[in-house]
Amino acid sequence: MAYTLITAATQEPVTLAEAKLHCRVDGNEDDARITALITAARRLAEQKTGRAFAPQTWELVLDEFPEAFMLLPAPTTAISSVKYIDAAGVEQTLDPSGYQLDKDSLPGYLVPAYGTSWPSPRLQANAVRVRYTCGHAITDAQLAALKAWMLIAIGTWHKHAEATADGSLNELPRTYVDGLLDEYKVYLA
Questions:
Q1: Could you say which of 38, 56, 100, 149 is the most buried, measured as most Cβ atoms within 10 Å of its Cβ?
Q2: How far separated are the first and last CA of the chain, in Å rounded?
Q3: Residues 175 and 111 in one domain
């Protein structure tokens, strides 16, 4: 089983202007570094919570069809395609009427449509592929705590640039509170 990022987020929940204001930075000389810190903060928040905080495309690859596909990170917004290698070794694309996305659950699940079952793929590695989009809309008002956490992380990393430059990131003071991310945590059963 492998989850692979196909298309990365093209927008961030925190803008460069918001991060610069929070870090009290004037001018443009630090823009590239602050932009990298914004992305790093979002990605760390995604890792800690199991969510995507900006629209992204992922692919899940399996050897066979499970009863239900668990789609991470959450929330799943749409299925792009379900493909499999048939018994003859030919890649087939499953008709969308053959499956249903449960996007109300966190994480989301892909299941066979009512009254149907998954086809039988060829017995080989990586025979089944599901490509899907996931992530919160950047304008989502429910992301206020995430933005606060990101700004605190970005500000801490920016202030302690020498610690991040020499690779001793673990020595940074814990000035931000991971509890701000608790409301976004996806718990796996």
A1: 149
A2: 17
A3: no
Same domain, 79 and 109: yes
- Whether 89 is in a domain gets the answer yes
Question: Could you tell me if 76 and 131 are in contact, meaning their C-beta atoms sit under 8 angstroms apart?
Answer: no
**Count: domains in the chain:** 2
Q: Are residues 154 and 117 in the same domain?
A: no
18: closest CA among 42, 43, 35, 2? 35
Q: Is 180 helix (H, G, I), strand (E, B) or coil?
A: helix
Tens digit of pLDDT for each residue in 145-170? 999 999 999 998 998 876 655 555 55
**Domain that residue 16 falls in:** 2-53+139-184
Bridge partners, 76 (sequence order) = 134
What string of DSSP letters covers 83-112? EEE-TTS-EEE--GGGEEEE-SSSSEEEEE
Q: Please state, in angstroms and rounded to a whole number, the distance separating the CA atoms of residues 110 and 30.
A: 43
Tell me which residue of 162, 161, 159, 156 sits closest to 177, measured CA to CA. 156
Does 145 share its domain with 112? no
Map tokens 């905080």 to a residue: 53
Q: Kindly state the tokens that stand for 38.
A: 């914004």
Domain assignment present for residue 189? The answer is no
In degrees and rounded to multiples of 5, residue 14 shows phi and psi of: -110, 130
Please give the Cα distance from 46 to 24 (Å, whole number). 26
